[in-house]
TrEMBL record:
The keyword Transmembrane helix applies. The keyword Zinc-finger does not apply. The chain crosses the membrane at residues 56-79, 91-111. This is PIRT protein. One of its GO terms (cellular component) is plasma membrane. Residues 1-31 are annotated as: Disordered. One of its GO terms (molecular function) is transmembrane transporter binding. Its main location: membrane. The gene is Pirt. It comes from Ptilonorhynchus violaceus. Keywords: Membrane, Transmembrane, Transmembrane helix.
Length: 134
């Protein structure tokens, strides 16, 4: 037979894992942490690479694909064998590389603007908490 716990003050000998979790956890902070990403709540600064690594990778891949397209396009002028294939594939790689290159280059100022807005927002929140928590 299963015996229910005697009292919630901890006088019973064996506690279930669920009751231990409920007693020891801070539900308010747990809810806040789970509702948003940790980067919003932590004040640790991120390195430049952590912030800009995605657009740098996109720019690098775009530049490589663009250069590959230039090589393929130039091969259509120098080689007579498979000329039609080079003429079709070269411009396709050129346009794809240029698209990735431009997207990455536009992405960098957007990230800078977001970083400035986030810094302003954190500053205004600290001012608000300073004045209203008195």
């Amino acid at each position: 037979m299963e015996m229910p716990p005697k009292s919630p003050d901890g006088s019973e000998n064996e506690k279930s894992p669920q009751s231990k979790e409920l007693i020891t956890s801070n539900t308010g902070s747990t809810l806040c942490m789970s509702s948003r990403s940790e980067s919003v709540w932590t004040s640790a600064s991120r390195s430049k690479w952590d912030i800009y690594h995605k657009p740098v990778i996109v720019v690098s891949v775009g530049a490589a694909v663009f250069l590959f397209g230039m090589v393929i396009t130039s091969l259509s002028y120098f080689l007579q064998k498979n000329k039609q294939v080079y003429k079709m594939c070269g411009p396709a790689f050129l346009s794809l590389g240029l698209m990735l290159l431009v997207c990455g280059l536009v992405w960098i100022p957007i990230i800078r603007k977001k970083q400035k807005q986030r810094q302003k927002s954190q500053f205004l929140q600290s001012l608000k908490s300073f004045f209203f928590n008195r």
